[in-house]
Amino acid sequence: MLLETLYGLLVVIAAIAGRSGAFTHGMSLRASTRSSPLPEYKAVVVGSGGVGKSCLTIQLVQHQFYEDYDPTIEDSYRHKTTIDGEQSVLDILDTAGQEEYAMMLDQYLSGGDGFLLVYSITSRKSFEEIKNLHKRIQNVKEHKKRIAMVLVGNKCDLEKDREVSESEGRALARRWAVPFYETSAKRRTHVEDSFFELAREVKRLRLAETAGEETNKLKLMWRSFRSWLSNKWRRVRRKDKPKRRTENRLKSAASARSSVRASSKRSGGRGRSAAGRSASARSGR
Ligand SMILES: Nc1nc2c(ncn2[C@@H]2O[C@H](COP(=O)(O)OP(=O)(O)O)[C@@H](O)[C@H]2O)c(=O)[nH]1
Ligand SMILES: [Mg+2]
């Protein structure tokens, strides 16, 4: 019985220790990226044609800027980099011409861990379009409470052609509760910041999910431990009951015996005094 209780307690302690370990950096990432020794983030770059998706991606990966990049090229890049002092792999999908390939876009979106939502500050139309893409991502991700996204207003070097103010972009990002950057693929302004922040968002989400899973596991273990304990307790009480019943019976029998003895003592005392009285009467005293 004692050993079993100790075992149960050990199980709960182990679960708690496991939970706190899950919050440590390396462990959670190892858990989420079992196939690769490095943490990996699948980023999908979306936005209307011509906003600078390819230029942003190529600027990040190759430190180059193209004046005329083929708008139909769709490519993916594995970019090994250091984010917050940690070696990581950014797996970037630069989408293109998806208006015609609706089904394919949904497939790409469903495979992504995080999304860089790009519009151009020189195109109001692209700003409106990004709202539709945001809806689409939410649909594909089945309206999950949190989706890793970063809103990006590109071409901020073209101030003279600006159609979307910075405050509009910031307000939209606030509404969606996502980070926001104005970037320039041409000048490499905030390019790394946007992609790295997206990786951080994915990481934060993974950690939150792992923590949620661990808490659920812990809750489950605690519940089963509690029911196991109460069952044990019930069994112990049930075993105890007959013993207590005999004890009670013995006690009541003993008290009955002592009360009989007491009453006989009382009556005996009275008898003796009466006999004494009659004896003294006989002796003439
Ligand atoms: N001035 C300026 N032009 C840019 C910038 N980013 C992209 N472009 C230009 O915009 C055009 C479309 O860029 P691209 O990356 O192909 O757009 P995508 O269709 O979204 O992939 C190209 O001519 C780029 O040179 C930027 O930050 N500043
Ligand atoms: Mg492109």
Question: Beta-strand percentage?
Answer: 5-15%
Integer-rounded radius of gyration:
40 Å
Bound molecules: guanosine-5'-diphosphate, magnesium ion
Please estimate the helix content.
55-70%
Query: What's the quaternary structure here?
Result: single chain
Total number of helical segments? 7
**What's the CATH superfamily of the largest domain, by name?**
P-loop containing nucleotide triphosphate hydrolases
Series of secondary-structure elements, N-terminal to C-terminal: HHEHEEHEHEHEH
Shape type: rod-shaped
Overall average residue pLDDT: 81
Ends apart, CA distance between termini = 76 Å
CATH architectural category of the largest domain: 3-Layer(aba) Sandwich
Largest sheet geometry: 6 strands, mixed
Number of strands: 6
What is the C-level CATH assignment of the largest domain?
Alpha Beta
Q: Which structural class best describes the helix and strand composition?
A: alpha/beta
Task: Describe the protein's topology.
Blueprint: H1 2-22, H2 25-32, E1 40-46, H3 53-62, E2 75-83, E3 86-94, H4 102-111, E4 114-120, H5 124-140, E5 148-154, H6 166-176, E6 180-182, H7 191-282
Parallel strand pairs: 1-3, 1-4, 4-5, 5-6
Antiparallel strand pairs: 2-3
Helix pairs in contact: 1-7
Bound molecules: guanosine-5'-diphosphate and magnesium ion.
